[in-house]
Amino acid sequence: MGAGGSQYDQVGVDARKGGFGKIFTAVAAEAFPHAFCKMYRDPETGLIMSQHSDGVGSKSVQRYIHWRETGDASVFEGDADDCLEMNLGDIACAGLMPVMFTDEVAINKRMVPKEVYLAALNKRMGELLELYRRHGMGFVFAGGETADLPDQVRTYVLDGTIMARAPEKMVITCEKIAPGDIIMGIRSGGPCSMEAKPNSGIMSNGLTLARHCLIVPEYEHKYPEIRDPSGKGYTGGFYRYEMLPCLGSLSVGEAIMSPTRHFSIMVHELLRRYFDDVHGVVLNTGGGQTKCTRVGKGIRYVKDNLPPPEAIFWLIQEESRESWRDMHADFNMGIGLDVIGPESVQKRVEEIADESGVGCQRTGYCEVAGDEKNTLTIKSRFGEFYYHAE
Questions:
Q1: What is the value of pTM for the model shown?
Q2: 7-197+257-388 sits in which CATH class?
Q3: In the chain, at which end, N or C, are there fewer CB atoms within 10 A of the end residue's CB?
């Protein structure tokens, strides 16, 4: 999707994770190939089930820097928000309900004391389990695995796996997405009633580029473990504690570490009340604003009313000089969740967003694509950009 030579590619990351899905498509037959996540039918019960794995990504590196500089281990608590929501958000988009969650911490205890990290993680995990339970999304946290890997891990890595299921009649297959449908976008940044402070909107994708282009090289000299020794170094001009007017009450470091919004709770409530009005839901993680091309069939998505990007994305673009075309394919750009459906879905989404104190707006619509492959056209103040499904 993205143009060759993007700044994201140069720091050694594939934002679109190209080729991975093609490698594993032959392993098992999906029940609904046009849905947001891979789902399978249990041959015994007929229930639709999924197992999804994701993690915090390289946002943990910024938290590591903060801890080394301040000694404040509470910064690690945000890893629980990111790890849980990067899994729960995806399965929620398919209408599935979580059943069981496990995590895996791979850690270099010479760099991060294991007991310090796990104490912070467990504290926040308990708070979040209660939050989800209150919103009707109770599930079992079955613990997980802690692996001491000093030869393989430079600091630490947190990943998680969620098991989920639902009756087929409650699954969002995305097969109903059709020309004439509209796209409603829910903001990734700003205030939210479930969050203690305003969110930068960055979520958990694009953090490698964000860190490398924003943070001063001084940190990699003090802590060489925070970068690939054979890769591109840090080139930024900001210290983690610097306050910029555009970021409001967040420092540069806090904006990078801002936790992923709990979209799964909003999606759960939307589907509980208005299932029939929702044809598709897309969490704009890897692939950013182009993620919608992965759902439905033969759809031309047109996004002609995206809001101005959150300030963190303006800053990343300015410092990295990434093209605006690739910025939209690397980052969510301020819209973390797309909800696709008929005209009636607009009021439904506005109702749910208002209850959480989160901004939303109509961002586009659906047309017939030229062939069976999905495409996306973004019409923005930065230009008109075209993308196609891989």
A1: 0.92
A2: alpha beta
A3: C
